[in-house]
Specification:
Elements: H1 3-12, E1 14-17, H2 23-37, E2 48-51, H3 53-56, E3 69-73, H4 82-85, H5 88-98, E4 102-111, E5 120-123, E6 131-132, E7 137-143, E8 154-156, E9 168-169, E10 182-183, E11 193-195, E12 202-205, E13 211-213, E14 223-231, E15 235-236, E16 249-252
Antiparallel strand pairs: 1-12, 2-3, 3-4, 4-14, 4-16, 5-13, 6-15, 7-12, 7-14, 8-11, 8-13, 9-10
Bound molecules: 2-oxoglutaric acid.
């Protein structure tokens, strides 16, 4: 990451890296997504292919299999898709934020089809990660095709990463996909910025940054691939349940005793990473 990109990340809580991936690099991920959605490829262990809520409830009858699926969650056991989370060019940027010891803590493909609501309310991803410091956690989100506002691009609230983790709840909408919680009292934030992106463009964002996305009003697809990363030295917050169904995996460097992959290990000789003062 260049010093300018790092400065942007610290100031705004996100940075867009243009064209981090080439079309040739993304083609296998798109083909794999298509194969999974069409049932031509069996999901690998732990992977979840999620239908959109409007399809699941029978409100929308999809014409094609691609019109039915909202997300493919937890692809880290898939030999093709995991090459995204392991890509050296991506990890070089991630390392600048979380440090050398990098774990992948969540990965997914997002397939926002036309014809469904598909909105994601403004939220903070730290809600899903009971550990910190937040400055050593980062999301990467890569556009797999042109993603305009009409296609339901990501929206972010610059600088909101300097706030606290807010309470979240289900938005008061008719159809909300499972797990799409919204930060209470945020709504369509007046300071939001719409991140229109070209294929391969990748946004890295802080887990306290308020972000969400709108409907896909186009007739095309809106596909993206995303992984959250954390320093292996992150520690669970006091009282956090460390026994759950974690699918965290070291990607680079080493695991840290007492950290997120070894929460019950003997207290480390090295301290947890300092939160960034930026
Ligand atoms: O891609 C989207 O529409 C939103 C993704 C997102 O914010 C998330 O899953 O946390």
């Amino acid at each position: 990451m260049t010093p300018e990109q790092h400065a942007t990340y610290r100031k705004s809580g996100y940075v867009v890296i243009p064209k981090l991936f080439t079309p040739a690099e993304m083609k296998p991920w798109l083909e794999r997504l298509s194969g999974l959605i069409r049932g031509e490829i069996a999901p690998s262990e732990g992977m979840l292919v999620m239908r959109d809520v409007m399809v699941a409830k029978g409100v929308v009858q999809p014409e094609r299999p691609e019109d039915a699926i909202a997300k493919v969650q937890d692809f880290d056991s898939d030999p093709v898709l995991r090459t995204y989370s392991e890509h050296p060019r991506l990890l070089a940027h991630v390392e600048g934020i979380v440090g050398e010891d990098i774990a992948a803590i969540h990965c997914m493909l997002i397939n926002k089809p036309p014809g469904v609501d598909g909105r994601h309310p403004f939220h903070q991803d730290l809600l899903y990660f009971p550990f910190g410091p937040a400055s050593r956690i980062v999301a990467s989100w890569t556009a797999l095709e042109p993603i305009s506002r009409e296609r339901g691009c990501l929206s972010v609230v610059p600088g909101s990463h300097r706030g606290e983790l807010l309470p979240h709840k289900n938005p008061d909408w008719d159809y909300v996909n499972g797990g799409y919680f919204g930060a209470v009292g945020v709504g369509a934030h007046p300071d939001r910025v719409h991140l229109e992106m070209d294929p391969g463009d990748t946004v890295l964002f802080h887990p306290i940054l308020l972000h969400g996305s709108g409907r896909n009003l186009s007739k095309g697809y809106r596909r993206a691939i995303s992984t959250h990363f954390a320093s292996s030295a992150c520690r669970y917050r006091d009282g956090a349940d460390t026994s759950g169904n974690r699918r965290y995996r070291m990607i680079r460097g080493r695991s840290t005793p007492g950290g997120i992959l070894e929460p019950d290990a003997e207290a480390p000789t090295e301290p947890a990473p300092e939160p960034s003062t930026d």
